[in-house]
Design brief:
Shape: elongated
Helix content: 55-70%
Number of strands: 2
Radius of gyration: 19 Å
Number of domains: 2
Strand content: 5-15%
Length: about 200
């Protein structure tokens, strides 16, 4: 089932996400300084992002008087949104810092050394689009077929050839692509039979 798409975020909200991608566990005051907005509008943007599930409280930092202020960090949904709509270099940084513990991260690291950056950016955008569109975490195996379908359809013939050569050197990634292709084929045949 395809989830209903949410309205796109505003410029201030996107700037907050991009800042948090590079500076996790930040307070509102440094965020507002970095994005050149006043405290009130930054607080409103963070509050909206938190309500939508893009950011969460990271911890509470106390000042010298013992008053606590919450710091904020991205959630999976926030990283996925950045991967789809953010600047490519920030998307890569967000993905790399957030998904280091993911089983797919090792394959991603190997692939990054074998193909050009454009292909990696297209992969991240596809992963973000798949996560935003289908509402599942980007690293879950059952979502990979849809992500890889979006990804491979966005490649030029030259990029496809480069990816094919690279996957020969990464057997685990090649296996994932085969499994994803089979899942898409199976899903397509089931839809065709039910019609």
């Amino acid at each position: 089932m395809v989830k209903k798409m949410e309205r796109p975020l505003g410029k201030v909200q996107l700037k907050v996400l991009e800042y948090l991608a590079e500076n996790p566990n930040s307070l509102i005051k440094p965020i507002s300084r970095a994005i050149s907005k006043d405290y009130k509008s930054t607080y409103g943007a963070v509050k909206t992002l938190k309500a939508k599930g893009y950011v969460t409280d990271a911890s509470v930092k106390a000042n010298n008087k013992g008053v606590g202020f919450p710091s904020y960090r991205l959630t999976e949904k926030g990283v996925a949104y950045l991967m789809r709509y953010g600047k490519p270099e920030i998307s890569m940084k967000a993905f790399e810092s957030y998904f280091k513990e993911s089983p797919l991260f090792e394959m991603y690291s190997q692939l990054k050394t074998l193909v050009n950056q454009k292909i990696i950016i297209k992969l991240l955008k596809a992963a973000g689009e798949g996560t935003v569109k289908y509402g599942k975490a980007v690293w879950q195996i059952n979502n990979l077929s849809k992500i890889l379908l979006i990804f491979t359809s966005s490649l030029t013939p030259k990029e496809s050839l480069q990816l094919k050569k690279a996957t020969k050197k990464i057997p685990a990634f090649r296996k994932l692509i085969r499994e994803a292709a089979y899942a898409v084929y199976k899903e397509f045949s089931e839809e065709k039979e039910s019609s």
